[in-house]
Design goal:
binds 2-acetamido-2-deoxy-beta-D-glucopyranose; peptidoglycan immune receptor activity; 17 helices; four-stranded antiparallel sheet; 14 strands; alpha/beta; PGRP_domain_met/bac; Amidase_domain; signal; N-acetylmuramoyl-L-alanine amidase isoform X2; six-stranded mixed sheet
Length: 531
């Protein structure tokens, strides 16, 4: 049986030394990556103690200054006398695929190094594999190098805890979803941070911190969490970003980094022998790891929020920046920055990340479910709106629980609305599946066709299913009641004192069904209809 570490080692070796050659004909989907892992697991025989990906990251890092942190964090394993696996034992098709996803790059509005996962999300491969590697090397902290190479870092007393530097973090308005906010913030003065969380620094914290160094303290870098579109649902070769000015912190990068952190954390805690990585990824991007339907890619944001609290993540971003400053004293963005400035950047980056990503619903854009074009000219909404109108779809009646079925439902509703009702587009602003995702209908900016006479005043949000006699899943309910509105308020689409109404309060209809409507009446923003 092939060992997980060895397989990853070969894979990352391919990532780092991509062979120029024939483009792969394989679609850029997660199943192709899983197939590559499975093939390696079958063909390559190494022991877990032999080299891991880290040795290749180490040797490749000279050519790229950006790898200094990975080099430091992903330890070289001591034993190298076992037979080195040969990456060329992979089929040429899989070799080509692996070199294609070797690096995560955002250039000219296109994103490279990403694949489509079975849940409909797009995932950057590199941070995912880095997380797996860090997890195989055990989830643990490592010491910061002691010598102080950068100018300001020996400037007297500093603090080990970010909460003491930047207590504003304690007021973060997103505490609702994080249970341990403020639990670990002693205010005692001590030295500068001495350790770094290897897993989080390598997957997420470094890039998050770096990307925010350039932005002012009031604005996210452009395109944080930008989505994109695959050229064709059938072949999936080119991924074009919806915001051409997007930073590297795209949705696919955040997804990959979070998946890497979650799976790395899992790997560091499972007892040995560890499961083959192909098996682990198949479960994670399928029905759930070890049969747990909550531990899968569909719920990465909820699981990510549970993995670490806001102050802890801010601390880790800070540590990663301090480490990078030590490793690269000449780094143009880090030169001459004080510990406090770095702490502020880390705090702001963490706040933005949690409020705009972790605390927001995962919305799959129109292109992902295969929407037909809008017919005619859409009318813009005057934002922010004051109402959220809740619907059930009634038909389709069964709740959709997979990307395939939810996307198919979206297409059939759009066909019905366009061809039978003669509307310009699917009527709803958003549709909520029971798969953990929200599907973009007319979206935040355009007037919908969901609540006759009120379409310009509110967003129409439907949950797929017939909720006459039963209730939607807790996830779907939570999305409509809490996550979607709080995120829409933050982004300026919804007024803070918005009101929730059921479709039937404004239009002669049973929608959103007796069961759902009775529950709706208990929601904090529920309002009786005015005449
Ligand atoms: C973490 O590192 C410390 C110090 O190196 C070590 O004593 C401890 O056993 C490690 N914990 C795990 C879970 O690997
Ligand atoms: C944050 O937590 C405090 C104390 O538990 C609570 O009173 C407050 O409403 C919470 N804020 C938000 C935005 O949920
Ligand atoms: C930040 O700004 C520096 C100097 O202006 C530039 O070289 C660097 O590429 C920028 N970094 C990012 C992540 O935008
Ligand atoms: C940092 O400080 C040094 C010495 O004070 C100065 O020469 C250098 O230009 C500064 N670098 C930046 C990026 O401000
Ligand atoms: C919706 O549910 C109700 C109550 O369970 C049932 O009577 C009705 O036939 C269902 N409608 C559809 C279209 O499934």
């Amino acid at each position: 049986m092939m060992k997980a570490g060895g397989v990853l080692w070969v894979l990352l070796r391919l990532l780092l030394w991509p062979e120029p050659g024939t483009a792969s004909s394989l679609p850029l989907v997660m199943d192709s990556i899983i197939q590559a892992l499975a093939e390696l697991e079958q063909k390559v025989l190494v022991t877990e103690a032999s080299g891991t990906a880290s040795s290749w990251i180490l040797s490749a890092s000279n050519s790229s200054p950006h790898n200094s942190l990975h080099q430091h964090l992903l330890r070289k394993t001591p034993s190298h006398n076992t037979m080195e696996p040969d990456p060329h034992s992979l089929s040429p098709e899989l070799q080509a695929l692996i070199s294609e996803v070797a690096q995560h790059v955002v250039q000219d509005g296109q994103e490279y190094g990403v694949v489509l996962a079975p849940d409909g999300s797009t995932v950057a491969v590199k941070p995912l594999l880095i997380g797996l590697e860090a997890g195989l090397q055990e989830h643990n902290v490592t010491n910061l190098p002691s010598e102080c190479l950068a100018m300001p870092c020996d400037a007297g007393d500093t603090l080990t805890n970010i909460g003491a530097i930047w207590p504003g973090l304690m007021d973060a308005s997103t505490n609702a979803s994080f249970t341990d906010v403020g639990a670990t913030l002693p205010n005692d003065k001590a030295k500068t941070p001495t350790t770094v969380d290897r897993l989080l620094a390598a997957t997420l914290a470094r890039d998050l911190g770096l990307m925010f160094l350039n932005s002012s303290q009031t604005q996210s870098p452009p395109g944080l969490g930008t989505e994109g579109c695959w050229n064709q649902l059938s072949t999936r070769r080119v991924f074009t970003l919806l915001d051409p000015k997007a930073s590297r912190l795209t949705m696919a990068f955040l997804n990959g980094a979070l998946d890497g952190a979650l799976l790395g954390d899992h790997l560091s805690r499972v007892s040995k022998p560890r499961p083959p990585l192909s098996h682990l990824l198949k479960e994670y991007y399928g029905a759930g790891v070890a049969g747990d339907p909550r531990f899968r890619s569909n719920f990465r944001r909820q699981n990510g929020a549970a993995l670490t609290s806001v102050p802890t993540l801010a601390q880790k971003v800070w540590e990663a920046l301090v480490l990078l400053q030590r490793l690269e004293p000449g780094h143009p963005q880090l030169q001459n920055m004080s510990q406090e400035e770095l702490a502020r950047v880390a705090t702001f980056a963490t706040k933005e990340f949690t409020e705009t990503f972790l605390g927001c619903p995962a919305i799959l854009p129109r292109c992902r479910w295969g929407a037909a074009p809008y017919r005619g000219n859409p009318r813009p909404l005057r934002l922010p709106l004051g109402f959220l109108y809740v619907h059930h779809t009634y038909v389709p009646a069964p709740p959709c629980t997979t990307f395939q079925s939810c996307a198919a439902n979206m297409r059939s509703m759009q066909r019905f609305h366009q061809n039978e009702r003669h509307w310009d587009d699917i009527g709803y602003s958003f549709v909520v599946g029971s798969d953990g995702y929200v599907y973009e209908g007319r979206g935040w900016r355009w007037v919908g066709a969901h609540t006759r006479g009120h379409n310009s005043r509110g967003f129409g949000v439907a949950i797929v299913g017939n909720y006459t006699g039963s209730l939607p899943s807790d996830t779907a309910l939570n999305t409509v009641r809490d996550v979607l509105p709080s995120c829409a308020i933050r982004s300026g689409h919804l007024q803070p004192d918005y009101k929730v109404l059921g479709h039937r309060q404004l239009v002669h209809s049973d929608c959103p069904g007796d069961a759902l409507f009775n529950l709706l009446r208990t929601w904090p923003h529920f309002a009786e209809a005015e005449n």
